[in-house]
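Researcher: Quick sanity check before group meeting.
Model: Go ahead. Protein one:
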Amino acid sequence: MDERKVRTRPVHLTTPVTALAYHDDEILLSGQGPYLKASLISTSETLKCIHLGGDWKVHRIVQANIQHISDSTVTRLLLVFGAKSLRIMRLVVTRSDGKSHPSAYFQHLWNVPHMKDWILDAQWLWPKSDIPGESPALRSSKGVHITVPPTSIAIGYAHNFVEVFDLPQDPFTISHQENELLQEDSLPNFQLTYSVQSEEHCTLFCGRFHNNTLEDLWFASGTVFCHALLWKVHHKGGIEAPVVNSLIGHEGILFGIRWSDDGKAVCTVSDDRTIRVWDITHGTNITHTTHFGHTARVWDCQFAGQYLISISEDASCRVWRNPLLPGSDDTDDMSDCLACWEGHEGKSAWSVAVSSHGVVATGGGDGGIHLWRLDSIVAGSSDAEQNTRDINLPDITTYYPEAVANEKEFVRDFVITSHSQSIYATNTGYILVRDDNNGAWSTLYNSPLLKNYVSLESSACGRVVVAGCLSGKLAIVSVQNEFETIVADTIGGIKIQFIFLLEGESLDDFRIVIFRANCTVGVFHLNISTATSKATCDHICDLKLPKNNKAIHAAYYSPLYNLVLLGSRDGAVMVYNLDQVVKGLSEPVTLESIVILERCHGNDSVSSILMITERGEGYEGRDRINVYTTGRDGSWAKYRFLGLPGGEVIGARSLSDDDDNSDIESDDDEGITNMPNEPDNHSNLDDREGGSTIVLQKVFRSKITKGWLEKIFIMDGELLLLGFFNKKLFVYNESKHFEIRSFSRELTAGSELFESAKLQNNFHGREVRHLRFLSGARPLTEGAPAPIIIATGGEDCRLRMFQYIPYKTKNSCTALKPLCNLKPHLGAAIRCLEWSHTEVPHSYVLFTGGAIESMRAWQVTMSIPNSYQVQAVEDHSGKVVQEHTPLFLGCFELAQCPHVSENLETRIMDLSVFRLESHPRMHFIASVYSDAAIRVWLFDEVTNTFVLAIDTSYHQKCILQVSHVRVGEGIMMLTAATDGKIAIWDLTSTLDKFLEKYDADENKVVKPHSPSYGKNKQKVQKRYAQRLDRPIAEVTAHMSGVNSLYVQNLGQDGILAVSGGDDNALAAVLIKATWNPSLRAIEAQSANVIARDDYAHGSAIQAVFMINASEIVTTSQDQMLSLWHLDRVGGNGYDAALVKLESQFVHVPDPSTMDILASEDKTKDSVIIAGIGVQIFDVDAKK
């Protein structure tokens, strides 16, 4: 290999996880691209990660049923294969007495890089005499305990034939260094001892072996003709083996096939979205069951005791009843699916493995690995008869002596006050208490007021019960006999429909919120005096609802800020300030809301509200005050109060947020209304900055179920959601992103089996279309390196941000730390994004653009804990470096750009952002559109608005690229389209005219920072907009579309633009231009293609960048990264020549975007490439 090629090194990769296998109940093996990794599931620690070399892709890991145990070391044999390549390896695991965690490493034994066909399965084989067991038919391929090493391997190929090779020697006797990578081909050392072709010559998409001896070896083939073939490999009658069974029933190509451990059943999955389980114990009389549930193609399904575990293109993992178990015929088809685990983003869960302890690991197309527990299905089974019980009221005569014959008695309402006590209100006006431990009943209270109607509510502590009646009175009852029952009057004697009993300042203080039948709300203050055994209840105020509002379904009281928050049936949230209550009045006052949020959950009801104050976690040490809501639309939302005492203030430039995985999902017509406090009323909310307005700002909303959510609460520091779906109650752990389906406390926070449900963080679930490093970021604290932040956007409509930590590249998949995960708009893919700096330290603006002409501005801020101290760590080479600061990143949507086109199909194809020194708080965004429009927008930080500055059209084709470069005091813009032409524009004088008009307008409206929803219906204001004349120069660089464009000012040598196109060509264009200060104009003398390579790549070039004045980096759909030198000597009719220095294979399918960031010490450049996954390379600086 040429020594120059060592300049480019892969250092990080996140791609689909295509192989999983458990070594034991602690260690999980995974294959991701060319990497093989061993992880400890209890702590998510990576024990070892190795690169298998070249363009390897791990498709499956096959472990031998033998372990060589010596002292504290366990050695296991592995067959690792992918495509036509095979490696035979050893995994060595050491458990030392002095260490709590094991260590592991891999040893390469043999490398077979070029088999004759695509490998579908491989199997370890032993002589029949070495395997215990009475009958081959009962022999498990998985659970047999074998004491001697294997002697051969069987390989099943995609054209339905099998080969058997003898191992050159005992694999446990080979001496190899730890992680030593074998490059030479070991196939000549393997002797082919047996080869057989199935009698049915066909192409397979899947295949699996069963049994571990040649004499008993079976192969199950999944064909492209929608059926499966079972045939015995060892056949004495000739070179073709007969098919024993043909399993016909699927209506699509088979993608996966598995044997049961005892070989009595086969499970197949298909393109028809079904799972079929075949009972093959009766020879030709084969029966099967069919299981429906997945919404896309099914990739795999395996037997796991009483369960089947399947994975699908719909990114879910489903657990099914095993239909072959005794008694399974008694269950109906609807109950076959016991659980649906949805944790992976985007498209496809590709791999699955199950440990003997019942921990299911799934690997996704998003590059993540998730852990699930089978015992949560048993603990959370809500349809099991033993988990439910009927409660019957006692005989009416035992508590109601005056009951007449045949008097109807039934429960009107009930509450559960503790794990052992429940309270029931009956039709006859009695409130009964039941001891749920022994079933004993007692009377708590009775009154004619409660006869025939009652609304019941209890306090969270279970000490107080409040009953509302038809006449509008409240009966307040002590469950523990702490005070005498109080009957309180309400205004107007109107029926009470709903009651909310909310905790106040102390254990003996409560607020009672009632909703009356006439759509009015009353608030009462209940205070209990334990010293005097008395209680008081005062009607302190009524709350005015909006005219179009419906019933109130949720309420929350904040004693710290004296606020009441109400959630309505039509999705609105209202906030009321009880400090506005004027004491001493004869009649309760009616308060107006200070904040109204409409359509928080669409048109569905708000089901619960929670308010959490995080002391000192906000900007400048202020309190961060969060509000959470759940709704019947299946989503939960997070909001942030601005303007409350001690909290973050309105207009703060550096709000921080530490939510790692937040989603924004928006619907049309949602909005936020901020209403000022009445100045005539007294309020203790007058220490806020920026005016007399309290803002409840939306942070994000996440939909987690197609059912509805009923409650949100905190337990053991975890954010938990309670909801219903398909007649089942579920509990979802939002902090760890998995469904618990259990109501026992032990399963809510942590597990003895694993700490985190995410063993490996995920990337995007669909193709990434654009990404950008945050260049020029400053260190967050003295002595620390500058944080490396990456923003990404793609076809999954998500905006994500990651922190890149270079010294963690030793383990490949751990160097990217997710910081936030936003979904700005449903159905609008993000195609382009660009960063811009602000004058505020550690605060930046990010602009995103894409489908449906959607462009948004985001405020991105970074912060660290005040007590943080920089630590020294070792990088992958053992060098001591300063730790990259663990940071909190906040991302808030500032504004959405107005739509100009009437065509909903119009897309923003690319962005280029710059600022002018004369206007530092103004960001100019050059944007190009699919309808040939070229627009320059101003985003004004002061007014928080997008303003159209320049609007023109050119190329008459879809414009693909835009870039800019500074020439003197001017701005040069370059655009490129599908016609292969690059147009060069001078923006300087046009921007001067725009700013002259814009700065003169003193009536510009300042808008609060609030997120947008759906398509922006605000009409674009064109009163400042200017038009561009023709470009100052134009050049044809390609024969078709220009997919990538990079521009660099070389000073006196001119301006160099490099481009890559659909024609596979790489071109370099030199522009000669000068700045004329007297005319404030850029004058172009020439623009010519000085170098071109028509065959730069084997497919369309997707991205180009210059790492210095003479070197270029390119990537293409051919999955190659190439480093080029621009030789100014020239040749082939051009003034310069492009010389390819080196190429590297990119393990990211469909690479579509690239960016480069120079290291702080200028010794290397980090090159990041993304598509279906992401890979980072280090390119050493030219010496």
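Researcher: Fine. The other one?
Model: Protein two, sequence then structure:
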Amino acid sequence: MADPNSVASNVSRAVLALVDWRSSPDDRKAAVSFLESFKAGDVRILASASFALVKKDSPSEIRLQAFKLLQHLVRQRWEELSPEEKIKFANISVELMSASANSSEQWAIKSQTAALVAEIVRREGLNLWQQLLPSLVSLASNGPIQTELVAMMLRWLPEDITVHNEDLEGDRRRLLLRALTQSLPDILPLLYTLLESHFGAAMSEVKSQRFDLAKQHATAVTTILNAINSYAEWAPLSDLSNHKIILGCSILLSYPDFRLHACEFFKLVSPRKRPTDASAVEFDAAMRSVFEILMNVSREFLNRSASNADESEYQFAEHICESMVSLGSTNLQCIAGDDSALALYLQLMFGFFQHFKFVLHHQSLSFWLALMREISLKPKVHVHSGENSAASSVSFGSSPGVDIEKKRLLSFIHDDICSAILETSFVRLIKKEKLLPGTVVSLGAMELWSDDFEGKGDFGQHRSKLLELVRFVSANKPLIAGAKVAERVISIIKNPLLPTQDLAVIESMHLALDNVVNGVFGGLNGYLGGSSEVHMAVCTNFEGLLQHLLALKWTEPAFIEELGHYLESLGLFLKYSPNGVGSVISKLFELLTSLPFAVKDPSNSARHARLQICTSFIRIAKTADISILPHMKGIADMMGSLQTEGRLLRAEHNILGEAFIVMASVAGAQQQNEVLAWLLEPLSRQWVQMDWQNNYLSEPSGLARLCMETSMMWSIFHTVTFFEKAIKRSGFKKSHLNSQSGPTESPTLHPMASHLSWMLPPLLKLLRAIHSLWSPSVVQALPMKIKVAMTMSDTEMVSLLGSKSSKNVLTFVDGPQVDAEPNENDIRNWLKGARDSSYNILGLATTVGETFYRCLDAQSAAAALMENIQSMDFRHIRQLVHAVIIPLVKSCPLDLWEIWLEKFLQPLFLHSQQALSISWSSLLHEGRAKVPDSLSISVEDLKIEVMEEKLLRDLTREICTLFSVIASPMLNTGIPSLEQLGHVSRIDLSSLKELSSFSQSSMVSFLFKHKSLVLPVLQTCLEVFRWTDGEATSKVSSFCSSIILLSISTTNVELREFVCKDLFSAIINSLSLESNAIISSDLVGLCRDIFAYLSDRDPAPRQVLLSLPRIKSQDLAAFEEALTKTLSPKEQKQHMKSLLVLATDNMLKALATQKSVNAITNVTVRPRSKPQSQVEDGDTLGLDAIF
């Protein structure tokens, strides 16, 4: 056996080589190799040498590394020691901890000694804890430094419970939790005693002005609080109460030096879920005390904050408010029966919401939103099962008592609170940076959202929460909401400073008005709750507001645009008050005609405002419903008049036509067909003409000529975009569809079905011509202007870089007034817009029904889309797949798979596999992706590299999304799931089928029927597992799961061999990529499925595992035996993960990444999570016990 002292010297030299910046790369590599071999060598040498190195005469970096080696031994190799050796190891470790308890010792060393003892106790369990407890108590009684060490150790004990560790799933984790729970009667009293003792000592030393000693005791108190907080998340709340932990932490809330750590305790306790067993009564009592404590602290703060609070007070208040939000979001039932306590709690939360400090308002917003949401939602019946049925997300039953309790809770939210919530929300909808300085001053001390705030998310998220709260308050208090929003809007629009007043204020209130109207007239509780008096009063408020809006004579385009928004916000009101519809329509046309009619407006403001006014017609058509039907003829006449006079641009006509289609969808099938015929017939006459098709679409040079002819170019563009709007907006509302079709009638034909036969053939020709421009033989002969237009726009490049840019509205040249030849930007916009709309039309047309597939020739359609795919940019292929191919695959009738799918998928799969493979190879080996997309040469190289990689990843993910769609259950009904197959021992091999028998009920099987389709797909799948893109791997894994299921269910040898060898190896190798850490569980699951179901039918899975570098035959045998002892897929997956870690010496980074998160680290305060995320993620108000 090697001499431990000699080995220790070698370890010491290796560590010094690693930390010495002067060491050569070879020396560092040799040091790492030596340390790894040392960790894997004789366990007793490892222990002896490491203990020798932690002595004080060693340099600190060597001592720290030695402690980590000892912790590694305890975690990974503890079972190799005998019982006697374990006891000796533990005693030496405790002695080390005791020896480090002096002021001269480094804090890092103290932390590591405490962590080592905690690791040993976790491994050995309750028996060792009982043996060590007396010595730990004795050590802690020696002074504050010793107490700090004991507290550190107690803080580390439950880490494997508080920090998720997949390696501890199952029995071992449950045993650890049980052992620690049984130890709580020893741990919690000890912690309280130490807390009380050292807090008292700290106060005493301060009075005696012995500040050094006071500081030591204060440090001990802080460390004890950290230890307490590690139990706050999981120890029974009754134990925390009975052993005075809650009391002790509540006392410390009054002391600035300790209150933030004490706040952390209450933050962790507040969201605890109510148990369902007999301990619920004790839980409620303890949680009521927590409510009392926090409400008293909140009241004291709110009473003094207006006068003499400083920043530390506000920081403390933010912590308290966060805990108050958690309490109300999870445990409001604990005080729901006490009217005075509930009223006080709501009043305090309202105080936080109304507070001038933004951080307090922001914290409390989550509570009010969750509360009003749950009061407003209609009751739903939720069936819970198992241990998660306690107080998960709020679920109201369907019994009459539910509504009674909701009304009772709502009664505490009286009218004054609701009014103030609305007023506060209206003001805080504004962002500080958007206001003029004078407006900011007029708001006084109230803080608005600012970009300077850190950790508060995005302003858009904050504003959406406020608007949702406004909507829910309006649904429950319609009269108050209507009066408040009308009062606020009228005060703004009648301000004598207009039109110089802040546009931001006006813009924020149109959003508020929109949500109030939605809450009042589209409320979840039924329109206005059924009270005719309230109906009349609310309508009176909105009628008064409407008259003020109609009387406005704003002339600035930006203000006119906002006025259009205000009018469209009243759409739902107009649904119930149809008398105002005519006035609103007249006003919108008045606003439209008041704006200057200019084809190219240098500022773009008037152009944008005109388009926005036209868009308001769509919004009103959608919300006013049948109230707008009597006005359709008037709108049509006005459109015709403006068009005749040349005062309506083509884009504006398209938007108004879109609004007409929306109106017609309410009127029913006949009216909609008539409207579509009225709108489409003039377009069809030009569209089907062969002259323009032959002139511009028959050859690439024709399309180049088209790009030089402004009038024709934009005429075609607007025709195409209106086709898109027509097919997107047409259809029937369910209510009207149900009223027109009896139970025995066949489904009504889609309104656009009869138009596809003349619309789509020229559209495919147009796309074919656009695609051909990128062909190498064509692009060389194109004019320079078109070549420049084919490059990516600045907006697209900014989007690829992930930068924020101002909204870019495409400005299209319109009408015959412009004779100027289009510039590069015009052509670029035209190409992009025509391509985008054409793709969308085709994708939407595939969902209309079988009409699409019957009216087109599959070969011609495939040629138009796929003929030039090898010349297409990655961004265009991604768009084609997303908008056309995926809908085509989803909607293609089963009997047409053979005719359609192969023609489209074969060239796509073949090219994408080759192109992606080349580009990824370039990225991984040369550091830069090779993509065909043309980027501006003015962009710096680094940004170009980022954009190229983004284009590559986007296309990769889209192709993989297509694979996942092909593998979706709805397209593979014939493949049985693992649940249907049952355990591997129950599979009858005689029941397996031929692969071809699945091709009529499985698209995955259909691919395997066609070698030209499946081979590039399988090759792409294998390569994706080697690429560093976790999202793409995740999508491919779902496709591979279907392949695995298919191989289990069929007799096909070729498929089984691919799965058992190639796919199994690729999945294991993919776990070596850290980018796959987030989906490592799914990948390990696939490995488990392959081995569990196919290893008895094929030797390849065993051969693959035995080829791993560190595996031994006995390891594989033990793994197989473990699989046979459990039927749980989860436990089998854990066995597979453990084997892979063992067989690769923990070199699979996707698995090692998870483990490193759970490694013991130095003591730090836990990062504070945001309470609103709990509300958003489903941990909504815990009112189950009330209802």
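Researcher: One line on it for the slide.
Model: The first helix runs from residue 4 to 19.
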